[in-house]
Each structure stands twice: as structure tokens, then as C-alpha cells.
């Protein structure tokens, strides 16, 4: 394990923020992870996965541990299902393509989500009507305090909308090392109802889609709306879609009858933050090198040399304006490293 000093993190976060780590180490095995977590020469440690859901606003005065364990293993299978165990450092989309090549179904709607598999459970990633929890079986994680390997069932992960145990009670206490998923080998259950998927399939004259067709449709939709982090720094949705009470919703929808919304339950409604931000006049706006994406207002972008604080200031401006205009508080979805 080579420890680097004053190491630039620009290539390790999809926002492309040029912050430095005081110390930096790449970890490729669970044993090395346990060893470095127990190393008392570095009292402050910071875990870095794919860097796709974070905004770094200052240099990190710690040992940054980059999780790079690889491997995808078929643990169990019968005629109908396959259970695969994926090591935390595997790129999410690369893993989705691996499953599609083998005709394993369940991940096609979550194609092209940036980031690594090990961080997927933390915020229960999701897209186009499917969330990680729909295919999740369990995960393994090293407890930072005693370096023991702990097994988590799906229930123990307490998944919610962009939320889990690892964002709440378990925050900063575990490092996920592998994730086990249950996928279909036949009778795939397709979810094509969400938004533009059916339209995209129809546009390509696909009447009897398979999982690869759905994946390709999702890839096309994402490419048309979401910027490629390799070309334009970003972290996907910067904000969560706010969930409001029925009472607040009734007042809101009376004043904004054209607003899109999803009913979460009898008592709760979700409003697309992208719509609120667009209506507040921010879509496509640029302030120095920080901006709001022109095709999806939920995404903040770095045009080149924006600092983390410039992006954060823009986020605050947006939060204030949406609050002023609609009386609704939107919250960041990305982890703010302050
Ligand atoms: N909308 C606007 N203006 C915009 C963006 C959206 O009016 O600039 C409206 C759309 O017209 C639509 C509604 O908002 O009526 C929803 O838009 P979209 O289908 O693009 O989805 P979203 O709610 O904005 C969520 C996820 C995305 C995920 C998509 C598709 C969150 C925070 N975001 O976005 O996830 O890809 O649904 O499932 O839940 C991510 O987490 O990084 C991410 C990209």
C-alpha cells in the first residue's frame, strides 16, 4: 500500500473539483482495508468510493482511502434467478453491462448511473421507477471502530428514498466492501411505464422489448438530459425531490396547477425539484464556472475551474429562491464535504 502525500482529487470526484488530500491510498483488498483502518498513524480517515455523489469544498486534512476492490461473482443460481456478489470498487454501469451480457434482469433501468457499486446502498440509488432496494439481498461492510466484517440484510439497511441506515445511524461508521443482488434469468419484469422509456422504445420501433432494449432506452434518455461527467463536471441530481404534506401540497397545487407531482402516500406528495428550479429561473444559468444544466435543472455543473464553494454558493442561492417563490425547502442530495 503506497501512501501518497498532497494528492490531487480532481480525477477522483465527478464534479472535477481540484482539492487535495493530505494523504491518499488506493485499497484493493478487504484485508488491506481492515489494516489501514486500524493504522493509528493516521487518526483522520476519509472514505472515497466513485466520488460521484459528493461536493468537496476544501482540501481534505486526512488519509483519503480510495476503495478499489474488484470482482463480480455468481454466488447462487437456479433456472430462474442468479445472485451475484459485486465488490465495492466495481464501476456501477460496468457491472450493469456485465449482467446484461449474461441476460440477468433487474438493473436495466439503472443503466449509466455514475459511481461505484459499494456506494450504491448508501443513498439507495434509483432511476426510472426502480431502486437498488428492489434487487438488493445484502451487503458486507467493515466496521471502522474495530475493523470487523459485518453482514447487513436488506431490512437492516433501512432503505428509503435516496436514504438508508448508512446515511443515518450508521453514518461514517462502516465501509461497504461488497453488495449481493438477486437478478432474474427468465421472465424478466420490465418497468417501462416511467416517463420517457415507452416513448423512447416507440421512437425506435421496438414493440416487444427485452432488458437490453430497456437499458439502451435509458442510456439514450440519460445522455439527452444528463451531462457526461467526463465532459462536464457534475454529480447527477444535486437536490432531492422534496416530499411535502397533503396540506402544503393542496395549497401549492392550487397556486401552480400545471406543476408535475407524484403521490407518495395518502398524506405525502413529491414535487420534482427540477421543475421548481426551472420555474425559479435558474435553468441553463451560469455564474462564473458554476452553473445549472440547460437540459435538467436538478443538475449543477462545473464548467471547468469552479471551486467547491462556488458550486455551494449557487446551491444556496437556488434553495433561497425556491423557498421564496414556493415556500418549499429543497435539500442537497449530494454529500457536502465542508
Ligand atoms: N422537470 C422540469 N425541469 C427540469 C427538470 C425536470 O420541469 O429542468 C420536470 C420534468 O418535466 C418532469 C419532472 O420534472 O415532469 C421529473 O423529471 P425527470 O423525469 O427528469 O426526473 P427527476 O425527478 O428530475 C429523478 C432522479 C434522477 C433520475 C430520474 C429518472 C432524484 C433526485 N432524481 O429526477 O436521478 O435519473 O428521476 O428516474 O430523485 C440522480 O439521483 O443523480 C439522478 C439523476
Describe this protein with a few key phrases.
alpha+beta; 338 residues; Uridine Diphospho-n-acetylenolpyruvylglucosamine Reductase, domain 3; binds uridine-diphosphate-2(N-acetylglucosaminyl) butyric acid; 24% helix; 3 domains; five-stranded antiparallel beta sheet; Uridine Diphospho-n-acetylenolpyruvylglucosamine Reductase, domain 1; Uridine Diphospho-n-acetylenolpyruvylglucosamine Reductase, domain 2
Report on the architecture of this protein:
Helix 4 (197-203) packs across helix 5. The strands form 6 sheets. Strands 6-7-12-10-11 form a 5-stranded antiparallel sheet. The protein is globular and about 60 Å long. It has 3 domains: 4-67, 2-Layer Sandwich (Uridine Diphospho-n-acetylenolpyruvylglucosamine Reductase, domain 2), CATH 3.30.43.10; 72-225, Uridine Diphospho-n-acetylenolpyruvylglucosamine Reductase, domain 3; 233-337, Alpha-Beta Complex (Uridine Diphospho-n-acetylenolpyruvylglucosamine Reductase, domain 1). The relative contact order is 0.13. By secondary structure, the protein is an alpha+beta fold. Helices cover 24% and strands 27% of the residues. The protein contains 8 helices and 20 strands. Bound molecules: uridine-diphosphate-2(N-acetylglucosaminyl) butyric acid. Residues 127-128, 195, 225-226, 236-237, 240-241, 260, 272, 274-275, 278, 283, 296-298, 333 line the site of uridine-diphosphate-2(N-acetylglucosaminyl) butyric acid (EPU).
Amino acid at each position: 500500500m503506497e501512501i501518497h502525500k498532497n494528492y490531487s482529487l480532481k480525477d477522483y470526484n465527478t464534479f472535477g473539483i481540484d482539492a487535495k488530500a493530505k494523504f491518499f491510498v488506493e485499497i484493493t483488498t478487504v484485508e488491506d482495508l481492515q489494516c489501514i483502518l486500524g493504522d493509528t498513524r493516521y487518526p483522520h480517515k476519509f472514505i472515497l468510493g466513485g466520488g460521484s455523489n459528493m461536493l468537496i469544498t476544501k482540501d481534505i486534512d486526512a488519509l483519503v482511502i480510495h476503495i478499489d476492490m474488484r470482482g463480480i461473482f455468481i454466488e447462487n443460481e437456479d433456472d430462474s434467478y442468479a445472485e451475484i456478489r459485486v465488490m465495492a470498487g466495481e464501476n456501477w454501469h460496468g457491472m450493469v453491462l456485465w449482467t446484461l451480457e449474461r441476460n440477468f434482469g433487474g438493473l436495466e433501468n439503472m443503466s449509466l448511473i455514475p459511481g461505484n457499486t459499494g456506494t450504491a446502498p448508501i443513498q439507495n440509488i434509483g432511476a426510472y421507477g426502480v431502486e437498488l432496494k428492489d434487487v438488493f439481498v445484502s451487503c458486507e461492510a467493515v466496521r471502522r471502530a474495530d475493523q470487523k466484517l459485518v453482514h447487513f440484510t436488506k431490512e437492516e439497511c433501512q432503505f428509503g428514498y435516496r436514504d438508508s441506515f448508512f446515511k443515518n445511524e450508521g453514518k461514517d461508521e462502516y465501509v461497504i466492501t461488497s453488495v449481493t443482488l438477486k437478478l432474474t434469468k427468465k421472465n424478466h419484469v420490465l418497468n417501462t411505464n416511467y416517463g420517457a422509456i415507452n416513448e423512447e422504445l416507440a421512437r425506435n420501433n421496438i414493440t416487444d422489448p427485452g432488458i437490453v432494449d430497456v437499458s439502451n432506452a435509458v442510456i439514450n434518455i440519460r445522455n439527452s438530459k444528463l451531462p457526461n461527467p467526463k465532459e462536464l463536471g457534475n454529480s447527477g441530481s444535486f437536490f432531492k425531490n422534496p416530499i411535502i404534506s397533503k396540506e402544503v401540497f393542496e395549497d401549492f397545487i392550487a397556486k401552480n396547477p400545471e406543476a408535475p407531482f407524484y403521490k407518495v402516500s395518502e398524506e405525502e406528495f413529491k414535487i420534482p425539484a427540477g421543475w421548481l428550479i426551472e420555474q425559479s429561473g435558474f435553468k441553463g444559468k451560469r455564474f462564473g464556472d458554476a452553473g445549472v444544466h440547460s437540459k435538467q435543472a436538478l443538475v449543477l455543473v462545473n464548467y471547468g475551474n469552479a471551486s467547491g464553494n462556488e458550486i455551494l454558493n449557487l446551491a444556496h442561492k437556488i434553495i433561497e429562491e425556491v423557498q421564496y417563490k414556493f415556500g418549499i425547502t429543497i435539500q442537497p442530495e449530494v454529500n457536502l464535504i465542508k
